[in-house]
Amino acid sequence: MCGSCPKGRDLLLSTFAGTSCSYCGKLMIKEMKLVEESKEKAAGGNGVFVKGDVMFLIFDDLTVLQNSPGNTIQQLLQLGYKDFSKMKEMSLNVGMNEIFSILKQALTSKTPLSDVFLANGESKPMYCFSPYTGPNFRRCSVKIKVTVSKSQNKILFAEAEGDFVDFLFSFLTTPLGSIMKLRNGELSLGCIDNLYTSVKNLNSSWFIGSSNEFLLNPRVAQQFGCITKPIYVPEEDTSYWYGIQCIGCEMISKKKDGVRNPEAMKIFDPRCFDGPRERAVGFVKRPCLFIVWDDLHVTTMTTSSSISLLQKLNVPFDDLEEHLVDVGTDREALNLLVASLTSKAALTESLFSLLEKRKEAITI
């Protein structure tokens, strides 16, 4: 927060280090401690979301159940296992590398645990992108110009303005749980559906506080939202209060009664010209044009880059074709998000079908 402004000014709070105060211009370098929300969360032995004294069964498809003999037998029978004598137990050390591997496989595989712990170095077939075909709604329109290789049936790159690039960058801040919520728990993305359903079905008393509700409908962290995108996930709407807990102990709290002599604070977003009052549009400056490659590598467009771009493509000019694409519905946007998680050709996988449909419509 800003510790330089005189009393009487709004108390500004930012989660970004090195932010300049919009009132006095000085750096907001005064660090503040947050009051613990509950003793339950601070208690030792608990995890982040679930209580430490609860045991769970985690199956290969990441279905999570209460640990009990009945659940074990029922689930194994459903999976087709009848001869329990052929099963054996293994003790495994799960470190950071294994966690990241499970996360990666969970997005692309129906058997992530086997892939990670029993693969024995064998390569697994890659996940095949499956477009979402559920209900479709139009929220806002983002237009891009794509350049296609006719011989390869592939989108080589797209020319886009800030709104589309903001939308792509928002993939890095959008929780998967919020997308699952928008799709009623059906995303067809590896085993993520099973994880989401498991959180729904597990007893809420096994979770810390209301963390199960947070997992089922998370929001984007404050100051990381993007209001101009086809898939809208709201930011956290958290209020902060400044006060004291003991003599000389200044703290902030998410609850007004969490500190003594509370004063309301305003969240300062450094992306805005007037951070305390305006909502940020996105992440990149305007006006600016960008090149977005099929693998979602993003570069700014300049006169010199246009020449090097054509040289890099190494494709005959008569094989190139330009199209205007309107990413205007949440189905198109969702397909692009899923493709970004599972494919090296995200633009082609998610948007090329729009060009084919347009050609069919023209032919008819």
What does this structure look like?
This protein has 364 residues and is an alpha+beta fold. It has a domain at 51-80 and 94-126 and 190-218. Helix content is 29%, strand content 18%. The protein is built from 11 helices and 12 strands. It has helices spanning 39-42, 69-78, 96-108, 112-117, 162-169, 176-182, 192-201, 211-216, 303-313, 330-342, 346-363; strands spanning 11-13, 33-34, 56-58, 64-66, 138-149, 154-160, 241-246, 249-253, 260-267, 290-293, 298-300, 320-329. The strands form 3 sheets. The protein has a 5-stranded mixed β-sheet, with no helix packed on it. A 5-stranded antiparallel β-sheet has the order 11-10-6-5-12. A hairpin with a 4-residue loop joins strand 5 (138-149) and strand 6 (154-160). Helix 10 (330-342) crosses helix 11. The radius of gyration is 25 Å and the shape is flat. The chain starts with 10 loop residues before the first strand and ends with a helix. The relative contact order is 0.17. The mean pLDDT is 81.
